[in-house]
Structures are given as C-alpha cells and as structure tokens.
Amino acid sequence: MKFEGRLIQMTSYGHEHGLDQGRSTIEVQGEGKVTAVPDQAVITLGVITEKTELRSAQADNAAAITRIIQSIRQLNVPQEQIQTVEYRIDTHYDYIDGKQIFRGYQVTHMLQITTSNVGQAGAIVDAAVENGANHIGGITYSVSQPAYYEKQALSLAVRNAMDKALTVAHTMGITIDVVPTRVQELSSSGVVPMPLAAAAMKTSAATPLQPGQLSIIASVRAWFRQR
Known about the structure:
By secondary structure, the chain is of the alpha+beta class. It is 25% helix and 42% strand. It folds into two domains: 2-37 and 145-197 and 211-225, Protein of unknown function (DUF541), domain 1 (Translation Initiation Factor IF3); 40-142, 2-Layer Sandwich (Alpha-Beta Plaits), CATH 3.30.70. Strands 1, 2, 3, 8, 9 and 11 form a six-stranded antiparallel sheet that branches. The chain has a five-stranded antiparallel sheet with strand order 5-6-4-7-10, with helices on one face. The chain is elongated and about 80 Å long. It comes from Paenibacillus cellulosilyticus.
C-alpha cells in the first residue's frame, strides 16, 4: 500500500467574515491519495441460449448454468458467493418484406461470482467457459474494506492542506494558527472499482488477468487564521 499527498490548487488569501473575527485567513485546498492492492474480484458471466422452442431453450440454459456452478464450486468458491443477477426470456423476430416472422426465443442467465482470491479470477473464467458460458460480462477488482482507505486518504488531504497553508504563510512573512478554523470535505473519488474487459472465450492456457492497483483520492478545503 502506498500513500501520497500532492498540491492541486494555488492558495487564495483574503478576509472571511464570521470565520476569523476580523483577522485575515488563508484558504487552501488539499488532496490525499492512497493506492491499494485489490483483495476482491467480482466476475459476471453466464449463458445465452437461442432456440425456437422455449422449454428446450430453458432446459439447455439451465443445464449449462448447473455445470458452470458446479465447476466453480470445485474451485472452493462458497455457494453464497455465486448468485444470479439476471434471468431474462426474450422473443426474437425477423422482418422480411415488412412482415414480422418469428425467429425464436432467447434465454439469458447471468451469474455474479465474488472471490477474495483475486488470483483465482482467471481460473473461474476458464472453468465457466469450458462448461458452457458464452458471455463474459466483465471482471471488477475492488477492496473489501473501502472505508479504511478513504479515511487514510482524508487524513493525507488535511495534512496536505496544512502544509500548503504554512508554505504560503512563510512566503508572505506572516504567522498563522497551525490548526484550521474550518475544514470542508470536497467530493471524493472513493474506492473506484477497476473493471476489466471481457476475457477471451477460449484459450489454450489459463486466462491471464492482472488486478493492478486501485487509487483512492480525497480532497478538502481548509481555512487558517492569521495570528
């Protein structure tokens, strides 16, 4: 895990009524950034079946989903971490010479698999594809405890604002209170899950997936009163 604080905006210097009781203040904006290694992968995949007979399409789809779930369970993924996120039946038609002609039914069943073993994501995709999955919705990497990293980023943002205020005060030859009179949290990116493009449907080797790192950024605005 890596912590980083950086300047993102020049300070402004002026008078804040009701904030400094007649004394000038320095207003600054600070930013804190934390990078973290993902500890959770969420995989969306499933089966799309098209047939002219609805019951046949449903049966084939259900059989494939059952095989997929069994193969994923064999990778020691708990049942409660495998859930259906979409089940849909659509009717498809072709239009020929202005006429609507029935083409068939499409049954879609999508699963969402959550694993704390991020290195296992590729094996899960491969097992699913080998057992009938023909649609990979994508893979998202995230952290299971985002609040921890968000607090770290916020702390760095406040420290960054304090450093900037002291730098401005020193440059201007004035003295300020080191504790801000007011701190406002600005919009934060939080922990943004990192999506991964749909994996190849069939490979001769295990699908290589790289989780990389996530960035968590917090920003604050702070006011420091001149002594």
